[in-house]
Automatic annotation (TrEMBL), chain A:
<dbReference type="GO" id="GO:0003682">
    <property type="term" value="F:chromatin binding"/>
</dbReference>
<keyword id="KW-0479">Metal-binding</keyword>
<dbReference type="InterPro" id="IPR003593">
    <property type="entry name" value="AAA+_ATPase"/>
</dbReference>
<keyword id="KW-0460">Magnesium</keyword>
<dbReference type="InterPro" id="IPR019787">
    <property type="entry name" value="Znf_PHD-finger"/>
</dbReference>
<dbReference type="InterPro" id="IPR043151">
    <property type="entry name" value="BAH_sf"/>
</dbReference>
<keyword id="KW-0235">DNA replication</keyword>
<dbReference type="InterPro" id="IPR050311">
    <property type="entry name" value="ORC1/CDC6"/>
</dbReference>
<dbReference type="InterPro" id="IPR041083">
    <property type="entry name" value="AAA_lid_10"/>
</dbReference>
TrEMBL record, chain B:
<keyword id="KW-0067">ATP-binding</keyword>
<feature type="domain" description="ATPase AAA-type core">
    <location>
        <begin position="59"/>
        <end position="205"/>
    </location>
</feature>
<comment type="similarity">
    <text>Belongs to the ORC4 family.</text>
</comment>
<dbReference type="InterPro" id="IPR027417">
    <property type="entry name" value="P-loop_NTPase"/>
</dbReference>
<dbReference type="InterPro" id="IPR003959">
    <property type="entry name" value="ATPase_AAA_core"/>
</dbReference>
<comment type="function">
    <text>Component of the origin recognition complex (ORC) that binds origins of replication. DNA-binding is ATP-dependent. The specific DNA sequences that define origins of replication have not been identified yet. ORC is required to assemble the pre-replication complex necessary to initiate DNA replication.</text>
</comment>
<keyword id="KW-0235">DNA replication</keyword>
<keyword id="KW-0539">Nucleus</keyword>
<dbReference type="Pfam" id="PF00004">
    <property type="entry name" value="AAA"/>
</dbReference>
Amino acid sequence: MATETPKKQLQSPRKPKQSLNNLKVQSSPLSISLSPQTPQSLIPPQAPPRRSLRRTSLHFSSTPIEDSIEYEKSDPKTPRKAVEEIGKISGQSRKGQSHEERVKTPKTPKIPKSKRNDENRKTAKLGILGEGMVEAEVTFSSVTPEVLETKKRKRGEDKTVIPRAMATRSSKKKEKKRVYYKKVVYDEGEFDVGDDVYVKRREDASSDDEVPEMEECRVCFRAGRSVMIECDDCLGGFHLKCLKPPLKEVPEGDWVCGFCQAQKLGKYVEFPEPPEGKKRVRTLREKLLASDLWAARIESLWKEVDGSFWFRGRWYMIPEETACGRQPHNLRRELYRTNDCADIEMESIIRHCNVMSPKEYAKANDEGDDVFLCEYEYDIHWHSFKRIAEIDNDEADDEHADSDEDWNSSKEPDSGTDEDMEYEEESTRNAQARLSTAHLAANSRKGHFFGLQKIGTKKIPEHVRCHKQTVLERAKATLLLATLPKSLPCRNKEMEEIMAFVKGAICDDRCLGRCLYIHGVPGTGKTMSVLAVMRNLKSEVDAGSIRPYCFVEVNGLKLASPENIYRVIYEALTGHRVSWKKALQLLNERFSDGKKIGKEDDRPCILLIDELDLLVTRNQSVLYNILDWPTKPHSKLIVIGIANTMDLPEKLLPRISSRMGIQRLCFGPYNYQQLQEIISSRLKGIDAFEKQAVEFASRKVAAISGDARRALEICRRAADIADYRIKKQISTVNSSTGKDIVTMAEVDAAIQEMFQAPHVQVMKSCSKLSKIFLTAMVYELYKTGMGETTFEKVDT
Amino acid sequence: MGREKEKENPSQKALNLLRTRLSNPNFVFKPLSDSPDSNYSKLKFIISSSITEACNNSILLLGPRGSGKVAVLELVLSDLLQQYPEAISVIRLNGLLHGDDNCALKEIARQLCMEHQLLFSKVASFDDNSQFLIAMLRECGLAHKTIIFVLDEFDLFAQAKQRLLYSLLDAMQSVTSQAVVIGVSCRLDVDQLLEKRVRSRFSHRKLLFLPPSKEDTERFLEHILSLPKDSSLPHSYTVEFNGRLKNVLADERFKELINTYLSFNSTIGQLMRFLFQAVSYMDLDVGFLSLENFKTALSSTQRQPKSECIKDCSILELYLLVCMKRLEVKEQNSYNFNSVMTEYKSIHDFQTSDNYAGNVCLRAFEHLLQRELISFTDNRGHNQSVEFRPVKLLISPAELYHGLKSYRSCPAILLKLIAR
């Protein structure tokens, strides 16, 4: 650990004294001497400092591992075997040096280790490919042992705590198998999958323990019950009454304490010293931000064969640990989620912390000290940032993860050897493309896109964070077509009808011949309404009031050819990719012959086909097949078709129209009041538009098409024009004289731009000869009365 | 030797400088970009605001050919690439090359892969590519990166099912993506070509590129043609050059000249071509631009190839042309060599000096065909011999008349015949 301290200083030269107490407990000097050989130097530069650091820090405290390194280095030619042996060796070595209960995990850790090895080898290899070096094997083998040890060594010295774990789900606990849980009560704390926890960093970390639940005041050093205020800069807490001058209540907005203010002005500030005999206790939060602790997100929980509880954690990182360091726009409490996972024993968990998305963070102001903000994911291999997907996608991801886990846990107890395979899979899922980019193309999809994690900004651009939105910009953001409105006004009746249809179909046991045809001009909210209904239904499924179903969405225009729809449907249902002929055969078997393979197949299936008219082929067999399935007794298939034309069923062959045309729903164009309501519901709380302007826009659009998209675009364009005008004014006059509100003039300009063909303007400015030619042509037209004419005739 | 001469001669250098300027669109369009009303600043505002505010936009750049649509766009893009070096990736497609949806998507995937150093596979199917595109849009959106699609010859994308446009625009409004689609077209009604569901998804930003006004043109000429003060050219030369140029530009005759040129075609691209020609006519010994240079350039752009062709014709060929014209005046619309020959004979009933035999006339007739002063009316009857295939004149009577007049030694009888 002595080696670790200086490195630490290199990384974040903040508080060297923090590591002083670490220095007390030292391991053998051997580790120090060995440190230069560590793979860090071998790993190419893109290897993240944190990971390696973390590993080394743990690794050097034990001597036996060094031996294993030596051993592996001597045998670089057989990497595969080495993996196995490393597993064993480190297992043994751990056994040898393990002080406590580690002994009781004799066999099982082997598997995770070998897996880790694999994963690690991938990184090492890749890096080396990039560097053009050849000694992948050596690097790899030397990397591995540390990795193995990391997670195990996380444990604190609190073995006095007897694992009092009990599974809330008292499922059949088969011995010799791993058991996965969703929730574990451990050490009097409940831990769910998806929770965020503090994780102990090293063994001596508990030396200054008795973690305070409450933060102390920085002035009087007492915790107390009275209201405290937090400085936005140094995150220190202050009692309102301890401040000079004292504050009566918590002020709005940002507040910076006097010390920070003074420091900013360049003065030397003496912080109030704690009273004698009382050591200044750091809270967990402070320790985390000083990187003396780690935070992780629990991805899965399981119980080992020996009864110890483990979890797979996804690390959080503080900005200082990233490649580009702390950026000026980073908030004090900001963390990054990494894509680095590790298996950790439950004992090293200290307690919960709260890592929130910006939205939640903005809402949660006084939820205690352990609140952190996390907006970005950090890729430790490419050193790039990426926003964590928005809530919608997040849900989907969660669901995906859940289902995966179900699958895991259902599969898990089958056999012990299965574990290996399963781990392989998991590791491919986690570390997918690191290996694969080497030989797989990014755009040819075999279930995954490879190499997508390469994308990401090296730095989070400043304009994203440090920019205060003006009213107009906020208005523009809400008017975007992509932003999903919170409520969908004016389509209640239709939505109810769809809801009733789908519900009736699902709950009806037979669900015979259910088919709904929705039509309407573009931009009247057809797809959106259906999707909203499906979202509502999903929440009902989650609540348990209706049976689960599967939902498949297909867009006719996105298919390469109409026949491909079979393939897409089959893939959505089962996850396998087959040719469309095979898919048709399988789907036929499933829907018309009623052959059910898995238990999932028993669920009712809702098929949403957008742009249905694109599926019309010459003999219309595709449509016929799809619409024929619902009529079969055991199909449990519900088809919702969406198209623009009202009379599509009539245009088709009678055998199809009889199957499709029974139940129809028409989405009429919006009238101006509805459009106005849509726009104003989006603009609620933003005072950027004149009321007449909105009405003008909606009346215009309603008169022409009744297309909501068009109306929103006009308003957005108008806001754009106003914004442009104002910004130009500011840049030229240096004072914002223009009122930042969208008026009739701007809306009119936007409408002109959108609806008026630019011919008149072009004609005004075109050259003399072309004008002459045009007039001649018009004259010729009048003379002959014919619509068409030839150049020669005009010429005369 | 040549190099030495160049060194000595400032006029050579000046000429080179002017030529480089004229062929560099960046320089040409820079001065037009200052004012807030210019397309440059509008376009830049739209794109940069969609980068900073993370929104999707689709813009149409419309205008006749040569009005600087692509040039301005490139200018904006290069500026933005400097301003936000990491946050933009530009995908360029051309309707002439990628009009087919399948190959357009493939090209998009290829360019995306190039941009992000991913491996690209040629064999990926349409589905794969479109899903890759959507995944990329999402990832880039999450990483605060904007993808800019530049679709040149946009009207060619707006054909058939418009699957590419639909999937692009649909992805842009459903996923958390940041993308800008810029369509460049010279068809003014291109948004009417879009299918209704595509049009509904298109956010109709339109920028119209118009030829510059008269004042703009003058400003512009001065900007382009005057030499910079702080160049390697000798100071005295620069001053004199600019002084003379000012005189030329202020000359009424020059203005008239420019106006005649602009009445043909008033786009910037054409003007540049004209100026290039004028500058090339500059006399290196004098070393200054003069009005004469512009005059020669103008006359060289206004050449009449057909009347020049007539100058090279023989007398017999002129006779044949006049005969054909006379046939047309008689409203005999379809004629072949034989009917022309009868007309020719009838002319020579009273005038016999230029009477040639039939085979000589046929030879002259074939020569006219080769010069493309006349041609066959249709492609049928290849197996027929030349005499029997119907022909037509490719030269207008007025042109023929002027050609005859300016002919060196045109027989008076011909002029009389054509006038009748």
